[in-house]
Amino acid sequence: MENRKNFASNIGAVFAAAGSAIGLGNVWRFPTEMGNNGGAAYVFIYILCVLFIGLPIILGEFIIGRHTHKNNVDAYHQLAPRSGWVAQGYIAVFTGWFVLCYYAVVAGWTLKYLCVSATNQLSAITDSATYFGDFSSSPWSPIIFTVAVLLITDAVVCMGVQNGIERFSKAAMPLLLIIILVLGIASLSLPGASAGMRFMFQPDFSKITSSTILSAMGQAFFSLSVALGCLCTYASYFNDSTVLTKTAGSVALLDTLIALLSGFIIFPAVFSVAGAQPESGPGLVFITLPNVFNTLFEGIPFLGYLSSTLFYLLLIVAAITSTISLHEAVTAFLHEQGMSRRAAARVVTGVCIVLGTLCAMSFGPLQDFTPFFGMGFFDFFDYLSAKVMLPVGGILISLFVGWKMDRKVIYDEMTNHGTLARPMYPIFVFLLRWFIPIAIILIFLNELGVFSRL
Ligand code: PHE
After folding, report:
1. Euclidean distance between CA atoms 240 and 417, whole angstroms
2. Do residues 146 and 104 make contact, with C-beta atoms less than 8 angstroms apart?
């Protein structure tokens, strides 16, 4: 096996980790969940989840990864040899693999919409719901785009940590920030902007139920890319000079900003178009928005063309920086078991093509195939990962770092061997030891209806 590479620069490390975090979760899933859960109250709970649950877990993963410089499974082997903890490493890697399979499907839809928009065909769509329904249920097209996304991801991962992942992230992240700012400003200047803003910022706390909280927590985990081995794997490529607390803070901040900015783009535009509903489910980005682009810019088609193309470009770039991290977490694991990097990547891509195809077909030929508690492949993978495995992984990581790991290692990693101040250290350990596991368990029990039966 060739020597293990690190990221060449600290900014490359931040961009790669932020690239993993920022993805469809921010631009597609967050506004959808916010729309379904009543807007501002959801945003408030979401931010609390990011600060008190997501951020400490990111830091925990960074500590594990940077200290061991190993893939997610071998890291646990090193830190807790011959113990059951290594199961957490396997769970994370395999759940990440599953996520990649269905995530690539939505990324594939995005790629299709980018092609449709860039070739100026979006404005010709008169009924966007039928168009999306026809496309997503057609037998071949969604599969072809899913496979295309997987092959692009494979190509970047095969180029390696510095030449592939770091270079791609360094080009993608600034592009993404510029596009999102341009679109955000444009959307805020629309006539419906104030209704959109009210929806995002005027909380109605009566809308908060246990399932809102569970959704917000699942969304925070998903959006921050925690508990799937991605951040841990990326941290294993961090240098000794990377400041973990600062990097974790930057990732959480950038991720949350992009999620909110996506709301700024989407909701003012949605509210500007009469009849467009904020809570239109996962179709928000693929059904409501094409409508919005077409209606808003009826008189000035070029602006419609430009904004829709930029929007889908933003979405696909964000999605691919995330698929790369999911892919890399599994590839690094297989590679470090002795396969060449290329062969490992091919195995990961091959399995994803098979399972991704099944997920893509859940909307078409396999629509009625719902063997998983009434869910098809796509919904089941999404439910299992975001609502079950991510919180479970979150508990395990926090218990592991909080109780099992050597305190000296945590201290050394947080302070870069005593060279940095350590104001966060006691809070961090407290949150991981007590607050996070208890909070996640309570939210779970509540969701299962345990408290209402008492
Ligand atoms: N965080 C990514 C997003 O918001 C998705 C993701 C989850 C990527 C888990 C890697 C690991 O879209």
Report:
1. 9
2. yes
Q: What is the mean pLDDT of each run of 10 residues along the chain (454 residues)?
A: 81 96 91 82 94 96 97 96 94 93 96 96 87 93 97 97 95 92 84 83 81 84 92 96 95 95 84 68 78 78 88 94 97 96 97 97 90 89 83 93 94 91 85 94 75 60
CB-ligand 1 contact for 223 (6 Å cutoff): yes
In which residue are the tokens 């829709």 written? 308
Ligand 1 atom closest to 28 (CA): 12
307 in contact with ligand 1, CB cutoff 6 A:
no
Q: What is the pTM of this model?
A: 0.93
Tokens standing for residue 149: 């996304």
Distance 3 CA to ligand 1 centre (A): 28
CA distances from 353 to 85, 135, 272, 367 (A): 30, 19, 39, 19
Q: How far is CA 264 from CA 54, 353, 381, 385, in A?
A: 23, 34, 29, 27
Please classify residue 419 by burial: count the beta carbons closer than 10 Å to its beta carbon, then call 0-12 exposed, 13-18 middle and 19+ buried. Answer: exposed
Rounded Cα gap, residues 398 and 88, in angstroms: 11
DSSP codes, 372-410? BTTB-HHHHHHIIIIIIIHHHHHHHHHHIIIIIS-HHHH
